[in-house]
């Protein structure tokens, strides 16, 4: 067992950390490991924020440990590489997503599915294999094994690429795997409209899909249709709208991160339709079986994507200039990062 005070943890770093589950962040001085043989050290330029950060900061999933430095959609520029690094050099623009390590020897790892490795390590809030905490991207520098680093192309701009490393791959992977990525099939993708939902709509549109947004809130209609470019909009508690849409959808990507009923969504699916859950509500969802049997429907889950697919996703995004709306703030001791957390909790973290 190694502690962060041991010799290899010599790089002084600064970040913002939650010290408990109150939801408040404060400045945090800590150390990162020195650049090891296969490591890439980089200066963090941008880091996204999403609802998973809030779940972690507030310990809503029940496994957070403190201090916790959030942030898992991170882009930056390489400042140092270890002697056995092959893919990157100093000055390269790179990114790190939701994971920083896995066992590298199980079947999942062998099949480019490190995200499903039983020993995967979360970028933020996880515990590294040496027992030290994994501190996320709300910090000035990061160190990561090159296998868990991706190359970020010139486009999209770096600040746009950052949230794609979480939300982009979370949408891209299930659309591909479940065959919901073919515009010729008139596949429709339906999402909730939170932080992940916004990126999902943009990304699904960039993939050429028809997108219907379902939301509890009718006042998101204009935002969904005009600003995000969705093709249609449904209010989930409007019985007549939902009734009219029944049996019309090939696929649903459910990004809602709070507890919600599944049956109304299942009813929207065609025969053989697929409901893929990518949000992670802290409470269990109820799954009545009968509506599934009636249409050979599938309810599935999906969690980010492997490293190979994450690189593929960002390369796909390279020429999609309007993928994400972002606004950003500097990471500095004098600038209160809590503003971003509060805005996200209030679901207002959108560029105007
Ligand atoms: Zn593994
Ligand atoms: Zn995220």
TrEMBL record:
InterPro entries: ADH-like_C, ADH-like_N, CAD-like, ER, GroES-like_sf, NAD(P)-bd_dom_sf. GO terms for molecular function: cinnamyl-alcohol dehydrogenase activity; metal ion binding. The keyword Metal-binding applies. Coiled coil: none annotated. Pfam families: ADH_N, ADH_zinc_N. Its EC number is 1.1.1.195. It comes from the Eukaryota. Belongs to the zinc-containing alcohol dehydrogenase family. This is Putative cinnamyl-alcohol dehydrogenase. It comes from Rosa chinensis (China rose).
